[in-house]
Design a protein that fits this description.
The chain is α+β, with helices and mostly antiparallel strands. It contains 2 helices and 4 strands.
Length: 69
C-alpha cells in the first residue's frame, strides 16, 4: 500500500517539531529542498540564517538551542 505524500512526516529544522505537509504552517524551498515549519516564526528564523539551522542539524542531529516557537 502506497503512503500518501501529504502524510509523510518532516522535522522542522528550527525547533525540531515533527510536521506533515498538511499540518505545516509554512514551507520554504532552499537549495532545491523543501523544508516544512510548525510556525511562521520558525520559518522566519530559518530564512534569516538557513545555514545556522542546517549546520546544527548536520552536526548534532537537532536544531540549535532556544527555538523561537
Amino acid at each position: 500500500m502506497k503512503r500518501n505524500p501529504d502524510e509523510r512526516s518532516y522535522k522542522d529544522p528550527v525547533c525540531g517539531m515533527v510536521v506533515s505537509r498538511l499540518t505545516a504552517v509554512a514551507e520554504v524551498e532552499y537549495q532545491r529542498k523543501t523544508y516544512y515549519f510548525c510556525a511562521q516564526v520558525c520559518r522566519d528564523a530559518f530564512l534569516a540564517d538557513p545555514q545556522r539551522y542546517l549546520r546544527a542539524h548536520r552536526q548534532h542531529g537537532m536544531p540549535p538551542k532556544q527555538p523561537p516557537c
